[in-house]
Amino acid sequence: MEFDDVIMGRRSIRGYLNKPVPRELIEEVLTLAMRAPSSMNTQPWNFHVITGDPLDRIRAGNTERNLAGVPHSREFRTGHAFEGVHRERQVGVAKQLFAAQGIARDDKDARLDWVLRGFRQFDAPVCVIITYDKELADSDDTPFDCGAVTTALVNAAWSRGLGCVINSQGIMQSPVVREHAGIPDDQVIMKAVALGWPDDSFPANAVVSERKSVEEATRWVGFD
Ligand SMILES: Cc1cc2nc3c(=O)[nH]c(=O)nc-3n(C[C@H](O)[C@H](O)[C@H](O)COP(=O)(O)O)c2cc1C
């Protein structure tokens, strides 16, 4: 696949085929992803690639605890609720996804179903938990580097016909993930990535989210 096709074609995948992903292919994707740059080449990232029974236990634990109203225990700062233009963009993509799935604004059951899907890692056959070395937790470069490798991962996966969705929903209950994935104490859980073969019949998979323009995002200095 051409680079432009990967970048422009990739989108988050939230519906997967019930078909395993070979470990060798995931290794290939990780090898590509790990060419990502990092601060001073520290490469603070680690990947916990989970499938089968352990992943099912994580899905069940996440779902039970979230339904029981257990407050989230993510291991990173989540910030305040979005406002203004950020809130508009958040609502914008949610509207696109709900419209694609035919979920009405007042359909509480369907909305809950959608949220639970996230807690189950979108029923993907594989989940990659991205962690970083706790020793580097006091530098903002560390989450920046994790973002770089994770973006490279989802693009590398796409180039091989695999779909992903980066998500925080899967790690809202971090003790569940720690226990069933056996995450060592010297690592901090940063993000989850659901991974698998896209189900082309799942409507939300076709959603192309919007972007602000280059003009909006960019100032040119010294060009004229
Ligand atoms: C840090 C981060 C956290 C995210 N968390 C979630 C999540 O919890 N649930 C979800 O459905 N999508 C999640 N996403 C996916 C975003 O909604 C998605 O990337 C964005 O809307 C742009 O759409 P696209 O990936 O299809 O281009 C997350 C993405 C990132 C980068």
TrEMBL record:
Pfam families per UniProt: Nitroreductase (PF00881)
Gene3D superfamilies for the chain: NADH Oxidase (3.40.109.10)
Oxidoreductase as UniProt keyword: yes
GO molecular function: oxidoreductase activity
Family listed: Belongs to the nitroreductase family.
Keywords, comma-separated and alphabetical: Oxidoreductase
UniProt-listed PANTHER family: NAD(P)H NITROREDUCTASE YDGI-RELATED, NADH DEHYDROGENASE_NAD(P)H NITROREDUCTASE XCC3605-RELATED
CDD domains: PnbA_NfnB-like
Chain ranges of the Nitroreductase domain: 7-197
InterPro entries the UniProt entry points to: Nitroreductase (IPR029479), Nitroreductase-like (IPR000415)
Protein name: Nitroreductase
